[in-house]
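ok trying again, last paste got cut off:
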Amino acid sequence: MSHLRAVAFHEPKLGSTELEWEDGAGHDPGDPATGRSARCIVVDGATEAYDSIRWVGQLVDSFLGVEPDGGAPALTGVAMDEWFGLMQDRWVRTAPTRFATIFEERKFREDGSFATLLGCEIRDLDGPRPAWAAVALGDTVLFHVRDGGLVAQFPPIGADDFGLNPDGVFTQPSARGRMRSALLLAEGRMAVGDRLYLATDAMADWMVRTDGELLWRTLDRLDHPLLFRRLVADRRRTGELKNDDVTLLRVQCTAAEPDLLVVCE
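nice, full thing came through this time. structure:
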C-alpha cells in the first residue's frame, strides 16, 4: 500500500498581510478502508473580484468534502458542472444580508467573484499502481515529477500564456456554460517516490521557465515555510517571480506513513 505526504506553502503578495492572501489550498488524505480517495486542491482568487477570499474558502472546503452537502464532486464533466451550480447557489444563500455601501452591493450583484482552480484526486493507494485524476479551470497548474524529471504538466500552459487565460470558476450563473466548455480533465499513473506539485499562476509561471533538474531539487528540499518565503523573496528580487499571491502544494507518494507530524507557523 502507498501513502501520501502533503505540505502546502504560501506567501502573500509583497505589501499584503496573511489575512489578505487570496489563494487557497487543501488536502484530504482519504480513507482506503471506506473507499474514499485522497484529494488536493489549489485555488487562486482574483484580486479585483468581490470577496474572493470567501469564494476561495467555499470552493476548497466543498471540493474536499468538508461541507458534505453536495461536496467532493466526482471528477467528470457532468458532476463538476452540477457542482458549479451548487457553488453558485450557496454563494448567494450565504451572502451578506446588508452591504456597507451601494457600490459594494453592486459589485456583488453585477461582478461577483472568480477563481482559477486545480483539483486532484489520488486513487488506488491500496493497489499496485496509484493514479491521479485532475480537473482544471484557468492557469493553476499540476506538475507530476518522477526521479527529478517532469512526467506531465496539466494544463500544458506555455511560458508566455500565464495571465492570459480568462477561465475559472465564476459566481455568476451566466458564466456556467463557459465554465462547462472550458473545463479540462486529465489523469496519470503514479509510483512510489513520485511528487505532484500544484501551483497558482505566479509560481507555475516561474516553474515553467526554470531549469527542470535544479527546480525539482530545490522544491523537493523545501522543509520549512521560512525556506519557501526566502525562495519567493529571492525570485521576486531578481524579477523572475511576479509580485502576486503564491501557493505551492507538494504531495509525495511514499511506501510508508510518516513517523512524525510537523506543524510550522
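cool. The mean pLDDT is 93. Residues 54 and 91 are 9 Å apart (CA to CA).
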